[in-house]
Inverse folding.
């Protein structure tokens, strides 16, 4: 029933307040256990399963999806979400996202020689019944490395494969680092190897592409080809059946699925605008909802017909302080504390303490976001530094730090001047989002004003995603601080984001110490997992000290699931086996 | 008449050219570009820069323009960065939806507005007339999205009479009868809102036209022939008042097209309007420019259509 | 040549327009009769109620805004009290009308043939082909040269004179007994006017219909009328056979009118001028002699209190007796600056 | 005997029949229009007074998380929005902003359109030709889309930018109208008379022709004004309207986008929606009354 | 003779064709010549659309002259006419057909009358006021009409105000374009009388345009009959009426209804005769393209359009 109101259940309120208290007082660890209590990771619906049935999946999105259904080419995460029903990675991973031996292929790493062996199981078939060959495993490399390839995946990591650059330049016909050992084994040679290889990094590609279908299509034409857009051949539990471009996809079960024939007849994935999703869930139109925005939680929390699954996301948001510039000539970050408005660590820390992120998390996100204390989300249990205090809301402390650092109000307008007595106006760049985002940013500005800091918006309004990163990356002088977020992926390594040469190191802070950790984490030495974890923790600690980037929020991902769905899980360590999903009734529960 | 048509088409060329220049320059001035959206910790900024260079986005605008217009003349609208496919194909798909929407809207609009306009005009100053006029004022005054949202909520969510997403259910084979029915079923609600909002103009125009016509000399002549009032209305008054409405068809359709930005956004209807908004947000230049050009072209076509209809239905223009 | 069968008799007709909730009579107590084969001209200054009288007969006034009292008897039926449907039986078939402005009196979007045919559909039982033939015949009758072509044309393709002929064709299509022509030639050039007038005369000779011809041009009246009614301020003030009226006008208004025609005057002589202006509908003097204020030199006592039409010779009626005191104003002197009509 | 001369009025100084008297009479006759006019004036005055002298914008836009979606009641007359901000205050300031934009756009497009239209209509010839081609061009371009693109292009964007952008695309309608009226007016003999009497062209345009178009200009501007009130709200709804820290009717109505708010927190959007509706209706009624005053044919019997 | 018009032509371009170019010209006025003597009235008659108004307008400068010239007091003013404040413009004035539309409905009578005074005569405000009162007295209107608006007057009164405005600058020539056709008979009489009076008093010259031959005959000493932009006949009023030469003139004259019912049957027969004659002679009276021939003298003052080959038209 969609007609429920928010305030009906005192139970929820209790939980809410409880969470606030805990987050305010204790470490995040508590919050983490708390979150386990908040949401299930898997549905526990019992009942007699029906034969077959169609699973209806809603994907919340206000625009059409792009519809590129090839792992090597897609760029939109939504395409990946859709494809997930039909594709299957070559490798399976464990709860730490490390590659295991359970998948279609196994990975053998030869650290000494910077080589890996990829071995595929026999008897695995594509959705059209053709067998998976080792050429299928090689094809993606030849696509990505091809000179006509226009995607983002031909990058430094990929160039780590020996011969990739020559192939790309057109001077070689193939990638010399790829070597077919036998019909089921591929050897790949890399320039260097790091622990990332176990997470699918360093240039390793974890998907296969059907040579028999797309092998002959020129790479330049691939992205628009029907083989990619309309009838992709896949390895997953389901196969593409019908597509309404940009709107919906219908899958049917793949009888050839290597793990066994799926129990469902098929899956329908449909794009649903954010404005209608809540009501649609209530009326039982969908079984599973992907990309559900946590701010809409209050709208669905009283529905009886669904189970809300939740898991921490591989994500953190942060407040960045510009303390330098990127030198594009020499490709290096140049930190300049003295010359930057935000150069004073006290100022930065005070700004962190002044933010009432806790209240925002509670009120706007129903605690589906929580105060972040570090730059590694707690899901990465072994790397996450739970000991860090973070910058919890403490306006008094913020004020005293500012007083101490000489940021005092000399002209009596209620706003602090800088230590030289000059007016201090801090320009914040923040990304636009939904209506809530605007309120939240206004609230943060207000928080700062409350401690006497005059923070205003760069350009006077929230900045749209694309231009935001453009400006931030270009070190726009109008930006002193910025609020960004990173999805970490399954490999939370700070490489690329905090290194001295990284353009994405937007705060432009680099130091020998930091660089040490960043390099250390991905160095060969880090094959020692414990040492690596230590480096991670030290990195988090260091950033907390210098406060050039202040973590703001971790967030939960919410997946509302209709009560008729059985065997569905979003647990990272025990993910859903798609072919196992079942339905317990013909129609969704209303 | 075909001469006028050809002339109008010739005039369209410079108009479209100027439009293309304006929209291209504007699009280039938009902050950010499609590639800045690709940013994730895994993507390599150097690769993004490389792609940008490859796509020619670092060239001076006039070179980009020359390239673009060159392709355009050859019928190549470029490639969407977000959808990674030819803009022509992409828009073609959405255009069909929007045209369907406009078409059904126009039909509904005329179905609602013409009888109301005729009634109000025929019985002017009556209670009925006053009610219709009030209705037309309200439908003019009510913001599109308020009415749209209310209808969506009421008929889509609450009563569940109509689907609330998409343009067609997945699983039907395009071209089959049930596919067509399903498509129409999907667009009835937005089309209805659209139609209701558009009725004001037609109603008011018809009404005043009919009121004026009643006092015209030729109507008096017709009445003096002793033909029944009903016939006087149908053969003289309505017919003459409806002709301009028929001729406005072209303009009405283009008007509806531009309103599609709102309607499609509200109803999540995947047409050109929605595509436009999402392209603006994702800075998909090629799509933005192509869409603006297309809308401009359709507007020109609409006015041309109106002229043609007018010259067909009005003997004063037809026979010079 | 002319018989005296009476076609139409109007008795005490009052036609009032509603202005701000009161009705003002634009036609005020008019009694008239029209005979077969007769052309009755109604003359008078602009706004005196000529058109109102004509449209009252055929019932084309907006019923919501007008009030018609009195009787309009046609074949013993009172047109004034007929419903719209009943009137439609009469309009076009028995009584038809010709309007002033040939430019706007035809539907611009309909072919000439269709417009002529329209009345035939409802008033005759002719088949389609017969109707077509009749249309051609009618066009021939009104002197249009290649009727087949014209029938297929649209009004804008015809000249003003041709259009007026078409309108006449429409009016005579069902061989009506009565034709009301409201200023049929005012919008036309003199040469064309002459042709149209001749056409009307010829038609009448053929069909024997009674014609009510409304005009303000005394020349036109002299050219074709049999009898003339002069209207002033909603009333008929004089009515007489045409030669009687032209040779011996009695009412001071009629006489002044004749004397203000430039053509009639001696070369370089001054034209006669009537003081004052025609009062507007709301300011019409409703009591006494309505013309009295415009002939100040006739003593007030000379006018009747309730002027009525007096038959001063057979068929010659004059309202009020003040005509007996009439003499031209210039005769009683006054400098030429005294035409101030304030 | 009744005197026909109108001696008694002849001393009375009166104005032409198309003047304010007629308008006044029309309003007296049409009570609805009168009420509309009075309410427009009062509401506008109230809104501007409140927005400029009473309401503290900083205070109003202060986020108060605990008051999120507070119901109408003692603390907030019309409740609070998602940020716990007073709806009533936002409604007032938003109305002020919308009205301000509408007025500014109406004035800018009005003045420009009138001047250009008069010049084109009066002189005709190549000036007219050139400008008409430009107008033809403007009419066929998809202006909503270009407005949106423009808005994303402007780097530091304020209410005034919005006004200018909307005006840029809004002047053609009135220009066309004024031009056609001026064209027919220029053919009237009093213009010819003025020419033969030695009067300068510009004097003829602005002193002779323009006053005669005043009624139609009033009508057109009023109706334009009603339309312009709607434009801002539409753009704000799409997210291309006023900057976020500026209260706006469009932003308020956009709350209805969320079905939950639509149903449960109606006070967020309904007052703004109603306000727009009533305002546009009222302006429209006034415009219609003006129109009747300007056009004798449509006058109320 | 203070003014002379030589071979005046006014052609309007007709646009059309593919590029909307000028494809043809309407020869609204196609080569007419006139002379004006002081204190006389000249009539210009013809059917609708024959170019009467265009002639008047082009003389006063409202229309562009295609060719031909206007000599005013010995000076060629063809191109100076359009200079608004020139002496020529002061001396030539116009009375319009529709007195109603010829006055700005938004201006009071005093402002309407003041317009030419302010533009042409440099008078002080007092003098201006005096002049306005004077003008009102001349046209016999009470002084208090100054404060009224045009719509408060009857047609005849408005026409008189129009005349007052036209004579405000003491013009020499007044072009009266159908000044009475919109008026009722009795009002028409007032205006005509009045125009005659001021003509006598101030020695005005009139170019009197009308399609009503009766009015022209009453007003003018000299008449020109126009057809399709050209003169078919021109001469003293008497000559035209008593001795019409051109078939077109005859037809026109025969069409004028006489204000007397006696003999109307005869007149009708006569009309029909003339008409058949006209149809028959038509080709002889006009050249192949239907254009009117050049004028040839019949007497010293009487000219008629005739083919150079045919001496005697009838
Ligand atoms: N529909 C109407 N409503 C109000 N008054 C009207 C209407 N029609 C005519 N009148 C008035 O009635 C009077 C008579 O009008 P009518 O048209 O009969 O005059 P007319 O003699 O035909 O004049 P004209 O020669 O100008 O045609 C006039 O004063 C006129 O203003
Ligand atoms: N501005 C113009 N452009 C094109 N043609 C014109 C223009 N003005 C007049 N004409 C044409 O010139 C011819 C003469 O027109 P004009 O007005 O001089 O005739 P007129 O004799 O005054 O007629 P009327 O008696 O109807 O006033 C007509 O055929 C008319 O259509
Ligand atoms: Mg009349
Ligand atoms: Mg003329
Ligand atoms: Ni009397």
């Amino acid at each position: 029933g969609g007609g429920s109101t928010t305030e009906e259940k005192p139970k929820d309120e209790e939980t809410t307040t409880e969470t606030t208290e805990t987050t305010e007082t204790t470490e995040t660890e508590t919050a983490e256990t708390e979150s386990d209590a908040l949401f299930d990771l898997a549905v526990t619906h019992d009942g007699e399963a029906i034969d077959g049935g169609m699973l209806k999946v809603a994907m919340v999105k206000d625009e059409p999806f792009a519809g590129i259904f090839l792992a090597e080419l897609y760029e939109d995460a939504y395409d990946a979400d859709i494809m997930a029903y039909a594709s299957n990675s070559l490798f399976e991973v464990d709860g730490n996202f490390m590659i295991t031996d359970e998948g279609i292929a196994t990975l053998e790493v030869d650290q000494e020689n910077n080589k890996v062996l990829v071995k595929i199981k026999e008897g695995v078939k594509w959705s059209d019944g053709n067998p998976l060959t080792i050429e299928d495993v090689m094809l993606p490399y030849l696509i990505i490395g091809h000179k006509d390839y226009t995607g983002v995946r031909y990058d430094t990591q990929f160039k780590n494969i020996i011969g990739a650059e020559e192939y790309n330049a057109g001077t070689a016909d193939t990638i010399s680092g790829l070597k077919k050992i036998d019909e089921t084994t591929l050897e790949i040679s890399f320039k260097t190897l790091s622990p990332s290889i176990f997470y699918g990094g360093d240039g390793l590609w974890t998907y296969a592409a059907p040579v028999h279908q797309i092998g002959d299509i020129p790479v330049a034409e691939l992205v628009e080809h029907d083989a990619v857009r309309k009838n992709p051949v896949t390895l997953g539990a389901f196969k593409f059946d019908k597509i309404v471009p940009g709107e919906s996809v219908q899958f049917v079960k793949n009888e050839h699925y290597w793990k066994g024939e799926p129990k469902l007849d098929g899956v329908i994935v449909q794009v649903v605008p954010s404005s209608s999703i809540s009501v649609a869930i209530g009326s039982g139109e969908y079984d599973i909802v992907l990309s559900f925005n946590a701010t809409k939680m209050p709208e669905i929390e009283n529905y009886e017909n669904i189970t809300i699954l939740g898991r921490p996301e591989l994500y953190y948001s942060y407040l960045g302080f510009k303390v330098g510039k990127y030198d594009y000539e020499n490709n290096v970050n140049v930190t300049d504390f003295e010359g930057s408005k935000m150069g004073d660590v006290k100022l930065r820390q005070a700004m962190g303490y002044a933010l009432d992120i806790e209240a925002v998390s509670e009120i706007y996100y129903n605690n589906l976001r929580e105060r972040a204390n570090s730059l590694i989300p707690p899901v990465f249990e072994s790397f996450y530094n739970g000991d860090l205090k973070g910058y919890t809301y403490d306006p008094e402390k913020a004020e005293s730090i500012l007083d101490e650092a000489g940021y005092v109000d000399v002209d009596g307008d209620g706003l602090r001047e800088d230590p030289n007595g000059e007016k201090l106006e801090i320009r914040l760049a923040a990304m636009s989002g939904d209506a809530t985002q605007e309120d939240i940013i206004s609230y943060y500005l207000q928080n700062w004003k409350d401690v006497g800091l005059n923070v205003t918006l760069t350009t006077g309004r929230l900045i749209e995603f694309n231009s935001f990163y453009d400006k931030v990356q270009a070190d726009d002088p109008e930006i002193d601080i910025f609020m960004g977020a990173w999805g970490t992926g399954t490999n939370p390594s700070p490489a690329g984001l905090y290194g001295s040469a990284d353009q994405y190191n937007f705060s432009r802070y680099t130091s020998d110490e930091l660089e040490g950790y960043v390099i250390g984490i991905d160095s060969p030495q880090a094959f020692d997992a414990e040492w690596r974890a230590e480096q991670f923790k030290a990195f988090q600690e260091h950033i907390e000290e210098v406060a050039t980037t202040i973590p703001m929020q971790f967030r939960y991902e919410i997946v509302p699931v209709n009560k008729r769905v059985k065997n569905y899980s979003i647990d990272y360590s025990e993910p859903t086996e798609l072919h196992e999903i079942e339905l317990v009734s013909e129609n969704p529960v209303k | 008449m075909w001469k006028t048509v050809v002339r109008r088409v010739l005039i369209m060329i410079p108009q479209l050219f100027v439009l293309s220049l304006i929209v291209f320059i504007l699009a280039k001035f938009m902050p950010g570009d499609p590639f800045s959206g690709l940013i994730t910790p895994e993507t390599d900024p150097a690769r993004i820069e490389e792609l940008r260079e490859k796509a020619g986005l670092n060239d001076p605008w006039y070179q980009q323009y020359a390239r673009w217009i060159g392709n355009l003349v050859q019928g190549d609208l470029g490639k969407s960065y977000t959808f990674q496919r030819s803009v022509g194909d992409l828009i073609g798909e959405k255009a069909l939806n929007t045209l369907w929407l406009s078409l059904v809207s126009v039909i509904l609009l005329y179905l609602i507005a013409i009888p109301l306009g005729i009634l109000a005009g025929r019985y002017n100053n009556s209670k009925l007339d006053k009610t219709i006029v009030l209705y037309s004022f309200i439908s003019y005054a009510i913001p599109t999205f308020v009415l749209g949202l209310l209808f969506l909520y009421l008929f889509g969510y609450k009563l569940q009479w109509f689907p609330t997403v998409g343009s067609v259910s997945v699983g039907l084979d395009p071209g089959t009868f049930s596919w067509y029915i399903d498509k129409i079923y999907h667009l009835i609600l937005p089309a209805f809102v659209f139609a209701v909002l558009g009725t004001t103009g037609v109603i008011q125009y018809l009404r005043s036209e009919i009121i004026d016509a009643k006092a015209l000399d030729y109507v008096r002549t017709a009445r003096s022939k002793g033909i029944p009032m009903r016939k006087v209305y149908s053969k003289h008054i309505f017919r003459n008042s409806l002709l301009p409405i028929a001729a406005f068809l072209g303009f009405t359709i283009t008007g509806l097209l531009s309103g599609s930005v709102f309607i499609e956004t509200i109803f999540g209807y995947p047409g050109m309007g929605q595509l436009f908004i999402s392209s603006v947000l994702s800075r998909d230049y090629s799509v933005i420019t192509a869409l603006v050009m297309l809308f401009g072209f359709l507007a020109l076509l609409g006015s041309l259509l109106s002229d043609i209809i007018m010259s067909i239905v009005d003997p004063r223009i037809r026979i010079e | 040549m002319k018989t005296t069968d009476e076609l139409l008799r109007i008795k005490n007709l009052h036609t009032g327009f509603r202005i701000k909730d009161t009705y003002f009579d634009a036609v005020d107590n008019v009694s008239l009769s029209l005979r077969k084969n007769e052309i009755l001209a109604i003359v008078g200054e602009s706004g005196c109620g000529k058109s109102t009288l004509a449209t009252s007969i055929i019932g084309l006034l907006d019923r919501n805004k007008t009030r018609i009292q009195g009787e309009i008897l046609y074949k013993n039926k009172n047109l004034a009290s007929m419903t719209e449907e009943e009137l439609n039986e009469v309009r076009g078939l028995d009584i038809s009308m010709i309007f002033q402005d040939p430019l706007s009196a035809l539907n611009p979007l309909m072919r000439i043939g269709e417009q002529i045919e329209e009345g035939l559909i409802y008033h005759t039982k002719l088949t389609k082909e017969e109707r077509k033939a009749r249309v051609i015949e009618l066009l021939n009758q009104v002197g249009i040269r290649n009727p087949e072509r014209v029938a297929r044309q649209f009004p804008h393709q015809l000249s003003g004179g041709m259009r007026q002929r078409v309108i006449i064709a429409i009016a005579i299509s069902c061989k009506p007994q009565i034709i009301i022509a409201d200023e049929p030639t005012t919008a036309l050039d003199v040469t064309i006017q002459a042709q149209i007038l001749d056409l009307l005369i010829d038609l009448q000779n053929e069909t024997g219909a009674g014609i009510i011809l409304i005009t303000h041009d005394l020349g036109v009246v002299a050219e074709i009328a049999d009898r003339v009614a002069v209207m002033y301020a909603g009333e008929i003030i004089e009515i007489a056979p045409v030669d009687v009226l032209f040779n011996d006008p009695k009412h001071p208004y009629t006489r002044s009118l004749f004397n203000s025609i430039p053509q009639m005057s001696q070369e370089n002589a001054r034209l006669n001028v009537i003081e004052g202006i025609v009062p507007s509908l709301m300011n019409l003097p409703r009591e006494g002699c309505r013309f009295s204020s415009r002939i100040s030199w006739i003593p007030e006592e000379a006018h009747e209190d309730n002027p009525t039409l007096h038959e001063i010779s057979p068929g010659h009626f004059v309202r009020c007796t003040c005509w007996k005191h009439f003499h031209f104003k210039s005769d009683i002197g006054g400098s030429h600056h005294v035409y101030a009509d304030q | 005997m009744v005197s026909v001369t109108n001696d008694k009025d002849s001393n009375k100084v009166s104005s032409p029949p198309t003047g304010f008297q007629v308008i006044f009479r029309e309003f007296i006759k049409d009570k609805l229009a009168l009420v509309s006019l009075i309410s427009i004036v009062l509401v506008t005055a109230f809104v501007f007074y409140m927005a400029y002298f009473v309401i503290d914008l900083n205070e109003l836009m202060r986020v108060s998380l605990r008051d999120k979606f507070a119901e109408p009641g003692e603390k907030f007359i019309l409740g609070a929005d998602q940020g716990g901000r007073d709806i009533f205050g936002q409604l007032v300031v938003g109305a002020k902003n919308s009205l301000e934009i509408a007025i500014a756009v109406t004035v800018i497009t009005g003045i420009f359109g009138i001047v250009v239209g008069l010049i084109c209509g009066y002189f005709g010839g190549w000036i007219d030709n050139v400008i008409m081609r430009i107008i033809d061009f403007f009419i066929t371009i998809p202006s909503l889309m270009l407005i949106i693109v423009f808005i994303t292009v402007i780097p530091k964007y304020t209410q005034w930018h919005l006004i200018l952008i909307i005006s840029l695309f809004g002047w053609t309608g009135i220009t066309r109208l004024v031009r056609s009226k001026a064209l027919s007016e220029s053919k009237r003999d009093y213009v010819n008379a003025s020419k033969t009497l030695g009067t300068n062209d510009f004097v003829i345009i602005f002193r002779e022709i323009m006053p005669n178009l005043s009624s139609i200009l009033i009508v057109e501007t009023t109706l334009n004004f009603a339309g312009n009130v709607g434009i801002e709200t539409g753009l704000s709804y799409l997210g291309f309207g006023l900057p976020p820290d500026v209260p706006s009717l469009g932003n308020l109505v956009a709350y209805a986008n969320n079905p939950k708010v639509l149903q449960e927190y109606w006070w967020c959007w309904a007052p703004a929606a109603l306000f727009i509706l009533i305002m546009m209706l009222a302006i429209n009624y006034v415009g219609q009354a003006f129109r009747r005053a300007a056009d004798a044919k449509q006058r109320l019997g | 003779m203070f003014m002379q018009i030589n071979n005046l032509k006014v052609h309007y371009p007709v646009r059309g064709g593919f590029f909307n170019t000028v494809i043809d010209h309407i020869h609204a006025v196609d080569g007419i010549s006139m002379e004006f003597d002081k204190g006389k009235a000249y009539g210009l008659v013809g059917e609708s659309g024959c170019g009467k108004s265009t002639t008047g307008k082009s003389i006063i400068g409202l229309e562009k002259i295609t060719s031909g010239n206007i000599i005013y007091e010995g000076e060629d003013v063809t191109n100076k006419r359009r200079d608004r404040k020139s002496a020529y413009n002061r001396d030539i004035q116009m009375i319009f057909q529709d007195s109603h539309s010829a006055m700005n409905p938004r201006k009071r009578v005093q402002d309407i009358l003041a317009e030419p005074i302010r533009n042409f005569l440099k008078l002080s405000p007092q003098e201006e006021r005096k002049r306005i009162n004077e003008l009102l007295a001349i046209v016999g209107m009470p002084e208090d009409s100054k404060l009224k608006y045009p719509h408060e007057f009857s047609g005849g009164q408005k026409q008189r105000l129009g005349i007052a405005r036209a004579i405000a600058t003491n013009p020499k020539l007044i072009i009266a374009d159908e000044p009475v056709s919109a008026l009722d008979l009795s009002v028409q009489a007032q205006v005509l009388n009045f125009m005659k009076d001021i003509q006598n008093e101030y020695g005005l010259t009139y170019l009197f345009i009308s399609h009503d031959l009766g009015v022209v005959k009453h007003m003018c000493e000299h008449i020109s009959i126009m057809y399709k932009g050209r003169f078919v006949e021109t001469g003293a009023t008497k000559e035209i009426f008593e001795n019409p030469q051109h078939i077109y003139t005859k037809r026109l004259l025969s069409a004028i209804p006489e204000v007397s019912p006696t003999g109307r049957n005869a007149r009708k027969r006569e009309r029909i005769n003339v008409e058949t004659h006209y149809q028959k002679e038509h080709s002889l009276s006009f050249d192949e393209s239907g254009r009117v021939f050049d004028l040839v003298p019949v007497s010293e003052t009487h000219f008629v359009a005739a083919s150079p080959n045919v001496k005697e038209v009838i």
Chains A and E do not touch (no CB pair under 8 Å).
